[in-house]
Amino acid sequence: MVMLGIIGKTRLCLSNDTSIDHIQRTGMDIQAHGGGGLYGQTDNVFYKFVILHAERDIQEAMRIKNMLEEEFQIKPGIIFDDMPAGQHIMKALDNAINGSAWTILLLTENFLKEAWCEFQSHATLMNSINMHHKYNTVIPVRPKKNFLPREKTPFILRLINALEEGRPAFIQQVHKTFQEEMYQKQHSIWRAERSFRQAVF
């Protein structure tokens, strides 16, 4: 089995014969039926960041989230595991990416072991290319322990400057990356899009 992803503590698995391309072509109905995430419904919250992570890295994702919120005052943030349960997984990913200012890809050794992580990285990068206001909002992060070495990192992600927790310049990089002006700009666009959808539907 290949771990596809998790929402609300519910694991979503695919057989090795089920590819990401198959999911895209057929619109496979994959849902999570577990309890709600830590934050409950996220529809009314625009997060500063969302962390996309491997299933084995939930605790590490929480550690990074807490560090950014508590030490750098970059909040609110959320990890993908805490997205509301019961959503189609593709919808949950869309909400995660477009409902936050920055998308963090947690690059650990586990990242390459899950097909879902590969798809997440492709989806976020395509989103940043296709949507002008999302340019430069995808942030690969290598944690101190069990990080994915640069030589093992997919080529397309090597083109993006990663935040590396073990580097002396990490603190300065974080402050430089998460700019309040960028957050406010994206928050305004998000509010305008929500108002438009509510008026239409």
From TrEMBL:
Keywords: Cell membrane, Cell projection, Cytoplasm, Endoplasmic reticulum, Endosome, Golgi apparatus, Immunity, Inflammatory response, Innate immunity, Lipoprotein, Membrane, Myristate, Phosphoprotein. It is found in: Cell membrane; Cell projection, Phagocytic cup; Cytoplasm; Early endosome. This is TIR domain-containing adapter molecule 2. It comes from Leptobrachium leishanense (Leishan spiny toad). Pfam families: TIR_2. Homodimer. Interacts with TLR4, TICAM1, IRF3 and IRF7 in response to LPS. Interacts with IL1R1, IL1RAP, IRAK2, IRAK3 and TRAF6. Interacts with protein kinase-inactive mutants of IRAK1 and IRAK4. Isoform 1 interacts with isoform 2; the interaction occurs in late endosomes and disrupts the interaction between isoform 1 and TICAM1. Interacts with MYD88; the interaction decreases after IL-18 stimulation in a time-dependent manner. Interacts with IL18R1 and IL18RAP. Interacts with TLR2. Interacts with RAB11FIP2. One of its GO terms (cellular component) is phagocytic cup. InterPro entries: TCAM1/2, TIR_dom, Toll_tir_struct_dom_sf. GO terms for biological process: endocytosis; inflammatory response; innate immune response; positive regulation of canonical NF-kappaB signal transduction; positive regulation of chemokine (C-C motif) ligand 5 production; positive regulation of interleukin-18-mediated signaling pathway; positive regulation of type I interferon production; TRIF-dependent toll-like receptor signaling pathway. Residues 45-182 form the TIR domain. The keyword Repressor does not apply. GO terms for molecular function: signaling adaptor activity. The keyword Membrane applies. Gene3D superfamilies: Toll/interleukin-1 receptor homology (TIR) domain. Functions as a sorting adapter in different signaling pathways to facilitate downstream signaling leading to type I interferon induction. In TLR4 signaling, physically bridges TLR4 and TICAM1 and functionally transmits signal to TICAM1 in early endosomes after endocytosis of TLR4. In TLR2 signaling, physically bridges TLR2 and MYD88 and is required for the TLR2-dependent movement of MYD88 to endosomes following ligand engagement. Involved in IL-18 signaling and is proposed to function as a sorting adapter for MYD88 in IL-18 signaling during adaptive immune response.
